[in-house]
Amino acid sequence: MDSTILRFLQYSLEREKPIRLMWQQDAAIRQANVQVTSVAGDTVTFLTLRPKGQVTCDAGMILSADYKKGDDGQ
Hints:
Elements: H1 3-15, E1 19-25, E2 28-40, E3 43-49, E4 52-58, E5 62-67
Antiparallel strand pairs: 1-2, 1-5, 2-3, 3-4
């Protein structure tokens, strides 16, 4: 996994703040604001904010991560 993506996942997990995440799921690319709840080995679990739901995926399926709109990482 890319170190930048890992830093964003840890940021969300440790500070309990949502981030914008892009990942591949069921042959489709998804993008949503998410709250990371677990990073364990090669598995990442997060809650999507809209629509509400929980997703568990392989870390290799995460394509991009960024701050949520309005958050500058402070």
